[in-house]
From TrEMBL:
It comes from Candidatus Shapirobacteria bacterium GW2011_GWE1_38_92. This is Methyltransferase domain-containing protein. It comes from the Bacteria. Transmembrane segments: none annotated. Gene3D superfamilies: Vaccinia Virus protein VP39 (3.40.50.150). Residues 37-146 form the Methyltransferase domain. Coiled coil: none annotated.
Length: 277
């Protein structure tokens, strides 16, 4: 299993980030896009600090049920304090074995938000989810990235990647930073591949909703205080990584003087199982 969220600093920064950007609308979007109704039973996989679970609980009410599972004990402790209701339970564990905690419970909705990347055996998890959904149950997966369909953000992306390469080779002359060109780019093709992978396991895409938000360069730098965000830069200590990002963002900002914000988008992919119609 990838280990970044076992780092207590990553947990602290994640909570700080959710508070900074506001977490309630995030939960409301989960409710809306997973079509959650009062009384529903909902499983929140990789629930993190339980903020989304809390909004879901408020929506499903006393007759519903929410179970959240996360690998990080620190997140589970926080979630238990934030969302303390008799019909909500949090478990510390690997979501790839979620049925160990949920036993034979069947769910109206299972959500996996901002966590696809962390799942090691995705096909096996998708099979398990399918077995644990009620007949008209939904699986909601959310995936976020800088929106490369937005011309300004695409231009930012190209400059920023070049500047990362430049900063890395200036700081570490022995490192060839061309590996940055080979990293997965979260473009439309990448999202389509994920949809195909899920559908291959017997799901049907029921809805695909896209939400957008604008980030300043300062907002973006703030998100990189979280040591779990390793995707872009390579294998450096979190302090060095943060400095590389800061220098590359500063260079990019001075090159693109008219750049106000970068667009970040999130896809909410709602899947149903193929057996229902
Ligand atoms: C980016 S956070 C998302 C948290 C939450 N879903 C949200 O949207 O706010 C990713 C979460 O996945 C959890 N995680 C990663 N791999 C996991 C695994 N195999 N089992 C359980 N939790 C895992 C991390 O601890 C972290 O809380």
């Amino acid at each position: 299993m990838k280990k970044a969220y076992k780092n207590p600093d990553a947990v602290t920064y994640y909570i700080k980030e959710r508070e900074y950007f506001g977490w309630r609308p995030r939960g409301e979007r989960a409710v809306k896009f997973a079509e959650i109704k009062p009384g529903d039973y909902v499983l929140d996989l990789c629930c993190g600090p339980g903020m989304v679970s809390k909004v879901i609980r408020e929506f499903v009410g006393d007759k519903g049920k929410v179970i959240g599972i996360d690998i990080s004990p620190k997140f589970i402790k926080y979630a238990n304090q934030l969302c303390n209701y008799p019909n909500v339970s949090f478990f510390k564990g690997n979501v790839e074995n979620f049925d160990t905690y949920t036993h034979a419970e069947k769910f109206d909705a299972i959500v996996l938000l901002a966590s696809w990347y962390w799942i090691k055996n995705k096909d096996q998890l998708l099979k398990k989810i399918k077995l644990n959904l009620k007949p008209n149950g939904r699986l909601l997966i959310s995936l976020s990235a800088d929106n490369l369909k937005n011309p300004q953000t695409h231009q930012f992306f190209l400059h920023y990647r070049n500047n990362l390469k430049r900063v890395i080779s200036e700081t570490f002359p022995d490192i060839d930073p061309s590996y940055l060109d080979c990293l997965t780019t979260a473009n439309e093709e990448y999202f389509d591949e994920i949809i195909s992978q899920v559908c291959h396991e017997g799901y049907r895409l029921c809805s695909k909703n896209e939400t957008k938000r604008q980030l300043t360069l300062a907002d973006k730098l703030f998100t990189y205080e979280n040591p779990a965000r390793t995707e872009w830069v390579g294998n450096f200590s979190s302090k060095v990584r943060y400095q590389i990002i800061k220098d590359a963002l500063t260079k990019t900002g001075s090159e693109l003087k008219n750049l106000q914000t970068i667009e970040r988008h999130t896809y909410y992919l709602e899947f149903c199982t193929c057996t229902d119609s």
